[in-house]
Amino acid sequence: MLENDNSKKRLQFKDKNGNDYPEWEIKKLGDIAKFYSGGTPLTTKRQYFGGKIPFIRSGEINSSTTEQFITEEGLKKSSAKLVETGDILYALYGATSGEVGISKINGAINQAVLCIKSNENHFYIYSFLKFKKENIIKTFLQGGQGNLSADIVKNISLPIPTLEEQTKIANFLSSIDEKIEKMEQELAELKSYKKGVMQLIFDNENAGNAHFVERERERERE
Questions:
Q1: Which of 1, 24, 99, 214 makes an SS bond possible with 14, Cβ 3.0 to 4.6 Å?
Q2: Residue-range domain boundaries for the chain
Q3: Buried-state track 154-175, b at ≥16 Cβ within 10 A, e below 16
Q4: Around 66, how many Cα atoms within 13 Å sit in the side-chain half-sphere?
Q5: pTM exceeding 0.85
Q6: Architecture of the CATH domain 25-160
Q7: Residue among 81, 83, 80 at smallest CA distance from 105
């Protein structure tokens, strides 16, 4: 259960008995999580690449696939670090600075990706960092240029509810994300359908085909 607390201007969740949860504490991310980034095997060593370990770069933190794979030898002889499905991944460098994701795969990360592990709810932390992305970029990157660092991320302050309330918040936000994803998929399919219909209506072979147009209208009414 949740309600809008106008005095605090935020939604408040209730426990199973309808009672308020304790007040949120403000903590630094570094106080509730552990951090590490990875590295890149020497690209001159062909034997380090083409293995079975997905190599997650900053542009792939929200992806279930990677462009590159490394070998066990490449992992051992470099600063690349392993991450697990469900870990929070945070992009530190370049155009993707400030992007955050939850790893969909087990793999290894390079130096442009920071792994965040915590006993708090990962989706709650992920949602906060995603919401605050523009503020973080504005605060720590001059004109949006430059790189973030583990020290910067560790010093980000965030509100910490009880773990039970974090889970309720995370589940609530996740359910909205699922609805958005479903609607985006339906929209993509509808756009593809429209494009196909327009090609069939307006290309030379089907132009003016009244029977075809009427048949497609009937399909849309179904």
A1: 1
A2: 1-23+161-222, 25-160
A3: bebebebbeeebbbbbbeebee
A4: 23
A5: no
A6: Alpha-Beta Complex (3.90)
A7: 83
Look at residue 206 in the predicted model and tell me its pLDDT.
56
Q: Look over the chain and give the mean of its residue pLDDT values, rounded to a whole number.
A: 89
Contacting residues for 125 by C-beta, under 8 A, at least 6 apart: 29, 33, 88, 116, 118, 158
- Beta strand 49-56 pairing with 107-109: parallel
**HSE-CB for 110 with a 13 A CA cutoff:** 20
3-state helix, strand, coil split of the chain in percent (to 5) is 45, 25, 35
Predicted confidence (pLDDT) per residue in 119-144, tens digit: 999 999 999 999 999 999 999 887 65
Any idea what the Cα angle at residue 52 is, between residues 50 and 89, rounded to 5°? 105
pLDDT digits (tens, 9 = 90+) for 147-160: 899 999 999 999 99
Bridge partners for 81 per DSSP = 109
Residue 87 burial (C-beta neighbours within 10 Å; 0-12, 13-18, 19+): buried
- Strand partners for 66: none
Contact 113, 94 (CB under 8 A): no
